[in-house]
Each structure stands twice: as structure tokens, then as C-alpha cells.
Amino acid sequence: MRSLPLTLKSFDVSLVLHMAERAAQPASRRRYLWLSKSGDGWLYLLSPLMVALSTTTAAAVQFLYLCGTAFAVERSLYWTIKNTTKRLRPPQAIPGMRSVIIAHDRFSLPSGHTSGAFLFVTLLCQALSPLWLLGYFWAAGVGTSRVGLGVHFPTDVCAGAALGTSVGLLISGAIL
């Protein structure tokens, strides 16, 4: 029996389909939905207030400035990449595929939820404490949930993680 070469595209498609099967199970679907919603952005808006309650007002203002600058750069790059590559989402690219949720925009590369989550955790690590490195588990979960919900390919999530982390390191290095 001859084995077919595994291409990046076939890996992407097979993993999305495998995870979509898991999302058919109610417990997996709930977990994916919860993780995805946790990366919607409301947490990022509350973070300067949480920093102010745990440190000083000056640290909170600096963190707010850092987040505002980093998210402005990241969102600009994210939007430009997404609308330049114009990669179709799994339901449009894979015949018969249905996603659990409906995405808010048309294209999939990079994953904005993943990019935002990785950016946020990177900023927390750089500005507050290396203990926030544990937050990368959450950020990876956000990305995984986007694949499981059928709105992204794994490479979209990898691109989002790389974008968010890179911008976080670049901006925090310039500001801090």
C-alpha cells in the first residue's frame, strides 16, 4: 500500500475534521465555546483595572498604555494580513464542513482570537511577572477552540500565535 505525502494543507484539513468530530460531543463543544468566548476581548479591557487593584495606579496606567499601543499595532497587522491573504475559512474550503459557530468575518488567516490571546499573555509576562507564562496554556486553548469550532485551520492559529507573541515582544521591548 502506497502512502500519500502529508502536505501542510492535508494536515490542516484532517486536523480540522478530527476536531470537528470532537466538537460533536457536548462536553467538548462547551469547552471550546467557553475558551473561545474567553478570548473575545472583554478580559483585555478589564486588565488595567485588575492591575490597578493589585499594584499602583502608575503601573496600571503604564500597562494601559502598553496594551493600547500593542493592540493597535497587532490589530492593524492582523487586519492587513487577513485581507491580503484572503484565506477561506474551513466551511468554505472543505466541502460538507459545517462550523459550530459563525465567524464574524469572511477570512481565516491569521486567527484574531489567538493573536489577541498570545499578545495579552506576552504583555502580562513582560510588564508584570514571568509567572504569567502559565497564561500561554490558556492562549493555546483559545487557539485550539477556534479549530475545534470549525472556524480556523491549525496554521491560522499558529500564525495568530506568532503574530501576537512577536508584536507583544516588540512593543514591550520598545516601551518598557
UniProtKB/TrEMBL annotation:
It catalyses: di-trans,octa-cis-undecaprenyl diphosphate + H2O = di-trans,octa-cis-undecaprenyl phosphate + phosphate + H(+). It is found in: Cell membrane. The chain crosses the membrane at residues 42-66, 116-139, 151-175. GO terms for cellular component: plasma membrane. It comes from Microbulbifer marinus. Its EC number is 3.6.1.27. The keyword Hydrolase applies. One of its GO terms (molecular function) is undecaprenyl-diphosphatase activity. Its main location: membrane. PANTHER family: DECAPRENYLPHOSPHORYL-5-PHOSPHORIBOSE PHOSPHATASE RV3807C-RELATED (PTHR14969:SF62), SPHINGOSINE-1-PHOSPHATE PHOSPHOHYDROLASE (PTHR14969). Residues 64-172 form the Phosphatidic acid phosphatase type 2/haloperoxidase domain. This is undecaprenyl-diphosphate phosphatase. It is a multi-pass membrane protein. SMART domains: acidPPc. InterPro entries: PAP2/HPO (IPR000326), PAP2/HPO_sf (IPR036938). Keywords: Cell membrane, Hydrolase, Membrane, Transmembrane, Transmembrane helix.
